[in-house]
Amino acid sequence: MDGQSKSASIPLTSQHEAAREPESGFGWEAKYKRLESLGSGGGAEVFEVIDQRTGEHVALKVSKWSGEDLRRFRREVEILRNLHHENVIPILDDGDNWYTMPLAVGNLTSLAPEMCDEALIEAISQAAKGLAAAYAKEVFHRDVTPNNILRVEQRWVVSDFGLAKRPKGLSGVPTTQGFVGTRGYAAPEVELYGADRADQHSDMFSLGRVVCFITTGKPPQMFHERILVPRIWESLVEKMTAIEISERFQSMNELQPALLEVERRLKEQRRDEWVKKGNASEDLNQQELITLALITQETDHDFRERELCDRLQKHKRGFFNIGLLRLRHRNFIEDHEDDRGERWGLRLTDVARDWLRVNGDRLSPYFVPTVETPPSDDDNIPF
């Protein structure tokens, strides 16, 4: 949906696999306990609810309308039930004017400000894959915005197909006349000639405007407004949002190599920055590389040094502890406190994570197997 929504979605996980065949025509109140509203817009509202049969927290979308608008809502349900892809929101259950979806942790609107460029590339790539799956079924979204790209567990999904366009003759809903979508994200052909002109090319434009927003934090206002994005994204955005349809990427699959190219140039840029700062990967000695490899094998954030040390053979533990001291001096690790403000362990710093994005492949030769202490009959009595 296109309000400030925290709403729902999830990939093909165990929750989706265990979903029952949706039951039509039953009121949701008998099955779900309402907790709070997550957002509203487009004639529907989304709530967080508890499935009283399983105890799971899911998202419930309820139509507030009747007549033609309710028919569109039912069309959305039908579309989603026929789209089975890890990057498209699945339906868990539905009724006459409602359906449930797994609960998301947020959308690109709320999460993008805290995301690095690599994570933004991943989000756009996965959204493009979800849209490509829809196009394979001849379904065009027509309202691609940051609010409708949701984070669920470890992946991104496209949601809210309430304005989606199906092939003529299959819709069951009268052809949409005039403008639909979100100003600033809708393509010029949709703004100028109406919703019936929308297709995968207009969705490409909209996804490009999503890139404008997540890389600048500035919501686009009109289709002809040019937003200055960081230089590394410029050529990608220019091609995605070209006014002439023929100058855009012609498919979401064609977009994927261009995203990889942005990622490649981003790594080059970061490597150059590291060299200028005197922090090039060659500055880490073998001891630091081995220690960092051990840490990243076990965690991507925080850790207890004693637990990692205990997994090493005894003659390597002193080597590991000195490596920790060197990494602390380099500002790669720092103390991590628990909720009470007490020291819990250590964690990787942003400096370390920046280095890993550029040089992570240099650790591969240093990954070492951890060893578990074998069971012994020795009772530790020395005689």
Largest sheet: 5 strands, antiparallel
User: Quick one: overall form?
Assistant: globular
**What is the string of helix and strand elements?**
HEEEHEEEHHEEHHHHHEHHEEH
Strand content: 5-15%
State the CATH topology of the largest domain. Answer: Transferase(Phosphotransferase), domain 1
Helix content: 25-40%
What does it look like?
With 383 residues, the chain is α+β, with helices and mostly antiparallel strands. The chain folds into two domains: 248 residues, Transferase(Phosphotransferase), domain 1; 86 residues, Winged helix-like DNA-binding domain superfamily/Winged helix DNA-binding domain (Arc Repressor Mutant, subunit A, Orthogonal Bundle), CATH 1.10.10. Helix content is 38%, strand content 14%. It is built from twelve helices and eleven strands. A hairpin with a 5-residue loop joins strand 10 and strand 11. 36% of the residues are buried.
Describe the structure using short key phrases.
383 residues; alpha+beta; Transferase(Phosphotransferase), domain 1; Arc Repressor Mutant, subunit A; 2 domains; five-stranded antiparallel sheet; three-stranded antiparallel sheet; 12 helices; 38% helix; disordered N terminus; disordered C terminus
